[in-house]
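Quick entry between incubations.
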Amino acid sequence: MAGSKVGSIGEYIREQRQRAKISLRQLAAVSGISNPYLSQIERGLRKPSAEILQQIAKGLRISAEALYVQAGILDEREADTDTQAAIRADLLLTERQKQVLLDIYESFRRENEAAAAAAADEEDPDHDAPGDDTQASAGEDTDDARRKTS
Amino acid sequence: MAGSKVGSIGEYIREQRQRAKISLRQLAAVSGISNPYLSQIERGLRKPSAEILQQIAKGLRISAEALYVQAGILDEREADTDTQAAIRADLLLTERQKQVLLDIYESFRRENEAAAAAAADEEDPDHDAPGDDTQASAGEDTDDARRKTS
DNA sequence: TCAGGGTGCTTGCAATTGCAAGCACCTTAG
DNA sequence: CTAAGGTGCTTGCAATTGCAAGCACCCTGA
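Done. Structure below.
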């Protein structure tokens, strides 16, 4: 198997794990694999079998297929229909249910956009060195406030 | 991996190969794997990786997914609705969010099926209405026609 | 300060995977 | 009859996979 793919699945797993905010050992434990092995997988030193990927997916509470696709052993499904349109057109759902799903979908989308914007804001200070002092100062105040609320 | 599953994938591969009327060596050659190894796989002496299954599927000109299902590393897919397919393919959602939406969707579906069953029990008495008999009869004819064309 | 609990990683090893070399057997042509 | 070509399988081995034992480091509480 091409090393580039294996590196990709390891990065992907680490990414999903960090999103779930669990440690490597915790994920290894709930997945039922050894933590050194999970570490090696994440760093691309080992190429896990499909069974191991299945276990990791279970631990991450995502579908095994998603990991298989990243690992290059399953093709990405086409089905490029729009999620919102599909929900609205789904005859097996009541209108109320459609709305609930759409609300959650949009909330997830906003969440992801906010995460993307936050990532962009962290990169901006690097571009404007003079403005950094002002923005960094403001940023510190915000961080202090967050610590107090936590 | 449970030996019973491995024995099953080996039998399945041999079956498909014999249906295709090609020898073990021919399949091994077009699949790009060694013929002794293919022999061992067919007899359940070895458990092939997903990559090897992928190659065998290519040689047999069947989908890799079919072999994955037999090997127990992929669940048999239910017929996805458009909504499910759309959620799975949505690049703007994280894997975790997809799973949450799918779980809620399926819960709604089950809710609706239960409601439909309850409604059907309440409507049974209405079938005695004359107009309803005519429609039910037409529906049955349509079903018969479909069975003949299938 | 030290002890305990947490983090991720290193290392050696047993088991497994996949292969190359070769065997045993069958069929066909000369 | 033999030789050639085909079939499926045996065996030993290198490489890989997955693990257990343990290391290095960090943080917190007494």
